[in-house]
Amino acid sequence: MSERADFWFFWPTRVRYSEIDGQGVVFNAHYLTYFDTALTEYLRALPYSYGLGGTDGADFHIVKSTVEYAAPIRFDQEIEVGVRTARLGRSSVTFDLAIFDKAGDRALSIGEIVWVNTDTTEHRATALPEAFIEAVRARESP
Asked: pLDDT at position 55, please?
């Protein structure tokens, strides 16, 4: 399991009623929504900005997402989603994510997201943007 100390970036939120299921816990699909929103805010904090569709003819495509559920997350619970870049490849980037209770150090859920930078015309992998690599290396050492 990931530890809170493994992350420099956290996105805080509170679980809304619309995000829970009949058991009173966060419905499983919402974990990926939390991860996606935290990842967007992580990029903003780096800072690195990318637009929809990529202005340079390339864009990130998700090729893998995993979620592990360690403990229930409930309605109105304040949580923080930690994000870090775990690996930079030639054309891919791997992010580690973890959800923590706002007041706790134990990960309630962990996940992994893998993106591939893709040429949107040729529909094939292309090198990660240098600006992205520089922004990540300035904050982390994946």
From this structure: 60
pLDDT in tens, 32-54: 999 999 999 999 999 998 765 55
Q: Are 84 and 14 in contact (CB under 8 A)?
A: no
Helix %, strand %, coil % of the chain (to 5): 25, 40, 35
Residues 6+ apart with CB under 8 A from 103: 78
Query: CA quadruple 42, 100, 141, 59: dihedral positive or negative?
Result: negative
Neighbours of 24 (CB within 10 A): 9
The SS3 of residue 103 is coil
pLDDT number for residue 141: 76
Q: Which domains does the chain have, with CATH numbers?
A: 4-139 (3.10.129.10)
Distance, in Å, from the CA atom of 113 to the CA atom of 35, rounded to the nearest integer, reads: 8
